[in-house]
Amino acid sequence: MKAIIPAAGFGTRFFPASKVVPKELLPVGPRPAIQWIAEEAVAAGADEVVIVTSPGKPQLREYFSVDAAWRGRLAGKSAAEAELDRLEKLSSKIVFAEQREQRGLGHAVLQAAPQCRDAREPVLILLGDALVDGETPASVAMAERSRDSGGASVVGLERVPEERVSRYGIIAGKARTDDPRVYDLTDLVEKPKREEAPSNLAVAGRYLLSPAIFELLASQTPGQGGEIQLTDAIRRLLAFSSVLGYRYPGRRHDIGNPAGYLDCLQSFRV
Ligand code: UTP
């Protein structure tokens, strides 16, 4: 399985820190957020993780590059050496794609299309600023649901308070009777007005999507905010392919803003 972590955004909510520290590299315990996220992808079965970065964020490539000097520096410090082994093992599965213009999440995902050319099964997409805490990682649970349904696309969901639906992609769909966490999607709307939202179930940072999504993204016109929205392409996918929603267990932390990051530091289990 291929995984994509879009991490090319400007991070304006974290300005001025984001001038020099990409939000995806903010530490949560001893490891940067993106390491936890990439490890989640590997736990879910990804053998290659494509990180989409931008020319203004070289630090992401630097973090995952092998630096022999550290091996010498850490000699005899067993805890740190174990971390280095862990990081190098992960780095061997990481490749990069570049988004030169920040034209939205859908556009960022499209930049990883060449690396996913041979994908025959759904591709896992994990937002670079969303950490999910839980016994079973969200992506692992979603990959199981997809397999149970013959390789269907699955979007991760969470319930949000009604006054916040206008900040998210919101689904319309019916919960299954045999598993009320699983929904058969009938529609998907990006940032609806509160009175027009079809539910309070928001798409929440994790997606497992048919490779057909790349062709849809390539022809996707700009939507909300003038950006190429992933939600709009998923909506078109729904027209010819079944898409499930899965309300994953565990709590999502949006580390892309200072309050969300502080909250994550206090409760994420490292
Ligand atoms: P966000 O919308 O949270 O990131 O996208 P942003 O644009 O950096 O946020 P602000 O509003 O400026 O603070 C979620 C994820 O998608 C990536 C981001 O890096 C983040 O990990 N993204 C977003 C891209 O890779 N490219 C884009 O054009 C937009």
Please describe the topology of this protein.
Layout lengths: L1 E5 L20 E2 L2 E2 H11 L4 E6 L5 H6 L3 H6 L4 H14 L2 E5 L6 H6 L12 E4 L3 E4 L4 H11 L4 E7 L9 E7 L6 E9 L10 E9 L2 H7 L11 H9 L4 E5 L3 E4 L3 H10 L3
Parallel strand pairs: 1-4, 1-6, 4-5, 8-12
Antiparallel strand pairs: 2-3, 6-11, 7-13, 8-11, 9-10, 10-12
Helix pairs in contact: 7-8
This protein binds uridine 5'-triphosphate.
Uridine 5'-triphosphate binds next to helix 5.
Structural overview:
By secondary structure, the chain is of the alpha/beta class. It has one domain (2-267): Alpha-Beta Complex (Spore Coat Polysaccharide Biosynthesis Protein SpsA, Chain A), CATH 3.90.550. Helix content is 30%, strand content 26%. The protein is built from nine helices and 13 strands. A nine-stranded mixed β-sheet has the order 5-4-1-6-11-8-12-10-9. A hairpin with a 6-residue loop joins strand 9 (169-175) and strand 10. The protein is globular, with a radius of gyration of 18 Å. It starts with a strand and ends with a helix. 43% of the residues are buried. Bound molecules: uridine 5'-triphosphate (UTP). Residues 6-13, 24, 52, 99, 102-105, 107-108, 127-129, 256 line the site of uridine 5'-triphosphate. Residues 6-13, 24, 52, 99, 102-105, 107-108, 127-129, 256 line the site of uridine 5'-triphosphate (UTP).
Summary, kept brief:
This protein is of the alpha/beta class and 270 residues long.
Ligand set: uridine 5'-triphosphate
What is the alpha-carbon Rg in Å?
18 Å
Q: Sketch the topology as an H/E string, one letter per element.
A: EEEHEHHHEHEEHEEEEHHEEH
CATH architecture: Alpha-Beta Complex
Number of helices: 9
Question: How many β-strands, per DSSP?
Answer: 13
User: How much of the polypeptide forms β-strand, as a percent range?
Assistant: 25-35%
Structural class of the helix and strand makeup? alpha/beta
Distance between the termini: 26 Å
Query: Can you list the strand order of the major beta sheet?
Result: 5-4-1-6-11-8-12-10-9
Low-confidence stretches: none
Largest sheet: 9 strands, mixed
Number of domain modules: 1
Rounded average pLDDT: 97
The CATH H-level homologous superfamily: Spore Coat Polysaccharide Biosynthesis Protein SpsA, Chain A
**What percentage of residues falls in helices of 4 or more residues?**
25-40%
Report the CATH topology name.
Spore Coat Polysaccharide Biosynthesis Protein SpsA, Chain A
Q: Which CATH C-level class is it?
A: Alpha Beta
